[in-house]
Structures are given as structure tokens and as C-alpha cells.
Amino acid sequence: MAIICMKNKENKNISVIILAAGLSQRMKTPKPFLLFNNMQTFIEKIITEYQLFDCKNIIVVTNKELINKFKKHSNVTFVINDKLEYGRFYSVKLGLQNIGECDYCFVQNVDNPFIDKDILTYIFSENLPDAFIVPCFNNKGGHPILLPKKIIDKIKNISQNNGNFKNILNKFKNYNLSIPKSEILININSPKEYDFYFKN
User: Fold this and answer.
1) How many angstroms separate the CA atoms of 131 and 174, rounded?
2) Alpha carbon 153 to chain centroid, angstroms
3) pTM exceeds cut of 0.85
4) In a domain? residue 2
């Protein structure tokens, strides 16, 4: 189903943080390098969609074991999370601290590879200056979320490093945006899930 843009994103500085620092313990192999198709890995597919959407800054947060395995891209910055024990929030915080000034920032998981330009366009079409956007399908929250500058700046300045990202987000206003695409709910966390979506 085609999705129509409802708001103009011109003159907006939009960034994305792609979270790819996890150890992929259930998958048994690094999720960023799983094949999405014959031409692209998960990370390459995700980066391509954000480039098509015209994201100004693309930040990939990864770990020191994987950093040298990524292909380099002209507008992609790689940031190392060397404290994986702190969890997901620390990766988000590191990413936000490296995007510079921006108006909005997507937070994208590497194990949600079905993102595309249409979904990003639809999410951004409902951007709000004081609330983060959660895309939903059948009343279930999916990914990626979209953070406005007001929330970005507050998260950057949180002193703790090992907080729970969901709990921290609960301190801010959010808007649940219904989207006609079930792909926003799909996470690939295990070989069984990968086989279901990619080998059938």
C-alpha cells in the first residue's frame, strides 16, 4: 500500500540512530550482517532507506568487535559502545550525543529490517515538537520511533548511563500513530524468525 506524505520535510534537519551494538546471542551471528536479499545485508538495507528518505545524519552505534566489518558510507558515522553492560539506553544516548544539532531523530533497531521510505515518510508527516511518535499497527507499538529536538536535548543531558530506555521515554509525551503496515512490528531475533521471513 502506498503511503502519501502529509507534511513537508524541507528545511528540517532529520537524523537517525541505528542501534547495532548488541551481541546477537539468540541469533548466534551478528544481526547487522544477515542477508536481507541477494544484494544487501540488514544494515545496508536500513541505511539505504534512510538515505532515500534524505536523512542528513546517519549514526550507527555498534561494538568494538564489529566496527571494522561495516562497509563505509559517505554520510554514515559509526560510534562504538564500549559499555554494552549499560544496555540499550546507553547506545541511544551515545548516538544522540554524536548527531550534532537536529530537529528530529529516528531511533531504528537493526533487527527491524523491513523499514522503508514510505513508512518513514508517513511517520514524519505527523511530527510534533513536544512529543515522540510511535508507529502502531492494530494498536501495537512498533519501530522506529521519532524523537523531536525538545526530547533529544533532554535525553542527551540525562546523567545516568544505564537507564531503561522505555522507562525514560515514559517521562515524555507520545503520540501513537496508526500505520497500515504490519512490518513495523517485525523483529528478527532468532534463526527461527529469520528462516520464517527470509527462507520460506
Assistant:
1) 5
2) 18
3) yes
4) no
